[in-house]
Amino acid sequence: MTMSTRPLPGHPQLHYRANDLYLEGARLSDLAQRFGTPLYVYSQAAMQQALAAYQRGLQGRRSQICYAVKANSSLAILQGFARQGCGFDIVSGGELQRVLAAGGDPAKIIFSGVGKTRAEMHQALAAGIGCFNVESEAELEVLNTVALELGTRAPISIRVNPNVDAKTHPYISTGLKGNKFGIAHERTLDTYRRAAQLPGLKIIGIDCHIGSQITEAAPYLDALDRVLDLVDAIQAAGIAIDHIDLGGGLGIMYDDETPPAADALWQALLTRLDARGHGQRKILIEPGRSLVGNAGVCLTEVLYLKPGEQKNFCIVDAAMNDLPRPMMYEAYHAIVPLHAGSSAQQQTWDIVGPVCESGDWIGRDRTLAVTPGDLLAVLSAGAYCSAMGSTYNTRARPAEVLVDGDQAHLIREREDIADIYRCERLLP
Ligand SMILES: *Cc1c(COP(=O)(O)O)cnc(C)c1O
């Protein structure tokens, strides 16, 4: 047996050794056998490397990286980032509770989102979070009231909509005028003036987040320029701003995308920042997908093959409830066998799940050599997969395993069916 390894481009820590797929030192077929399928598996080293690239890019600057929890909110993943000194970008009181349960530092938490409730504001103020990213003028007034009720001042940043095109999928583009997010560029100065009058608020920053799965540096540079124009105007009005938060959104390689590396992107952005005389400023960023997306895979077993006249279907035990991105965004995820070199004939398959919806597909027109009982890995499954999962069709959520070297830690037990209906009640 040869021990030569074959890496998979864009997927750090994932490689074939002989014909078996490994994540770090763990053979994935062993994990599938031990924990069952469908199964999410994450690489600690891949997540640490992704964070380290941002840390390198921001080295020597006053900065705070805040992992966007919604990309993957598993407690052990949050815990790993917290141990590396990372902060967190949350969008709900539930995410706040998760971050605290995972040992995150409240002072490094920022709270984004267009629909924060009073109860969530109260909860976040009581926890002592670092910053509220306020998304509307109405929210500003409510936050002021809640802070005064608690006898405190809420640290705030106003999320501006810089009206730049992130050139990404319409569902994940957030920085254009037609989006529900942030405050229009033209309204920003007035909104800061209003905030400065409210005694329950303390202005500390400005932020934007222009979209997700961005694969070019240009939209970031445009957004930075637009935000710096505003910072200059706000400061000229006598309102001090300490930090600039440029949000998240950096893309990953799902197929043949070539996003800039995090450190290279930040070098370009910091050069622009310096050139415009803002080099001293504290920088916040909110990366989600780019920290976890290519650190995770979803393992699934082939149940049945159903060749047909128009389409050949390969039915697997993972479905749209486990992995909703293909159905939601027609997203592409590479699908590879856990054991390469099958003797089956290569054919073109649609990889579909058991859920009773035609939208329940995971991959279309894939050339694979498969037989029932084979195991497949759906790649790039670390971000917005498990976190967007549901129990539709009363399917239990998969187990999750975190690989660290040759250690495999169960970080989420496979859900029990009774767990799914625990909150339901029969009629008397
Ligand atoms: C979703 C989101 C992020 C993270 O986006 P990614 O594309 O996963 O990096 C950051 N900030 C805000 C406000 C978000 O809504």
Automatic annotation (TrEMBL):
Q: Which family would the database say this protein is a member of?
A: Belongs to the Orn/Lys/Arg decarboxylase class-II family. LysA subfamily.
Role summary: Specifically catalyzes the decarboxylation of meso-diaminopimelate (meso-DAP) to L-lysine.
On this chain, the residues bearing N6-(pyridoxal phosphate)lysine are 70
Which Pfam families does the entry link to? Orn_Arg_deC_N (PF02784), Orn_DAP_Arg_deC (PF00278)
| Orn/DAP/Arg decarboxylase 2 N-terminal domain ranges (all copies) | 48-292
Which pathway is it part of? Answer: Amino-acid biosynthesis; L-lysine biosynthesis via DAP pathway; L-lysine from DL-2,6-diaminopimelate: step 1/1
Query: Which Gene3D superfamilies does the entry link to?
Result: Alanine racemase, Lyase, Ornithine Decarboxylase, Chain A, domain 1
UniProt KW keywords: Amino-acid biosynthesis, Decarboxylase, Lyase, Lysine biosynthesis, Pyridoxal phosphate
Q: List residues traversing the bilayer.
A: none
| Reaction catalysed by this enzyme | meso-2,6-diaminopimelate + H(+) = L-lysine + CO2
Q: Binding of substrate: at which residues?
A: 289, 325, 329, 357, 384
This enzyme's EC code(s)? 4.1.1.20
Q: What is this protein called?
A: Diaminopimelate decarboxylase
Quaternary structure? Homodimer.
**Segments forming a coiled coil:** none
What domain of life does the UniProt record list for this protein's source? Bacteria
The protein's required cofactors:
pyridoxal 5'-phosphate
- Record InterPro entries: Ala_racemase/Decarboxylase_C (IPR009006), DAP_deCOOHase_LysA (IPR002986), De-COase2_C (IPR022643), De-COase2_CS (IPR022657), De-COase2_N (IPR022644), Orn/DAP/Arg_de-COase (IPR000183), PLP-binding_barrel (IPR029066)
- Tell me the name of the encoding gene: lysA_2
Q: Which residues form the Orn/DAP/Arg decarboxylase 2 C-terminal domain?
A: 40-382
- Residues involved in pyridoxal 5'-phosphate binding: 249, 286-289, 384
Q: Which CDD domains match?
A: PLPDE_III_DapDC
What is the species listed in this Swiss-Prot or TrEMBL entry?
Answer: Comamonas faecalis
